[in-house]
Specification:
By secondary structure, the protein is of the alpha/beta class. It has 2 helices and 7 strands; from the N terminus they run E-H-E-H-E-E-E-E-E.
């Protein structure tokens, strides 16, 4: 990233330490992270959202407009997460095997 300062990099992460580093401005300025919600990390997602971070979450059937008090943006519309407003939920509609998920990974809003 340092070698290509004019390129915008972005990624998803389920790692709360890495996400905290991003939110604290400790990672390169041309690197954007979105936190990944899983079936067993909701309390971490709540902390990330309280700190102003974006969280990607998978929803059953359709996206709500608001979830947990945060605006939901359509994450299926584009992959350019660095263009998302700050402090939003990046909503993704279930696909493939996720349509049969019963673990809590897919949210029935």
């Amino acid at each position: 990233m340092d070698a290509f300062p004019d390129v915008q990099f972005y990624d998803y992460t389920p790692d709360p330490v890495r996400m905290s580093e991003f939110l604290a401005g400790e990672l390169p300025s041309n690197y954007h992270l979105t936190f990944s919600r899983k079936e067993d990390n909701q309390s971490i997602c709540d902390s990330i959202m309280a700190s102003g971070g974006n969280v990607a979450a998978v929803f059953r059937d359709s996206l709500p407009k608001i979830w947990k008090g945060k605006k939901v943006v359509d994450g299926d519309d584009t992959d350019l997460r660095f263009l998302d407003p700050k402090n939003v939920i990046v909503g993704l509609v279930e696909k493939g095997l996720a349509k049969k998920d019963e673990s809590g990974f897919v949210i029935s809003a």
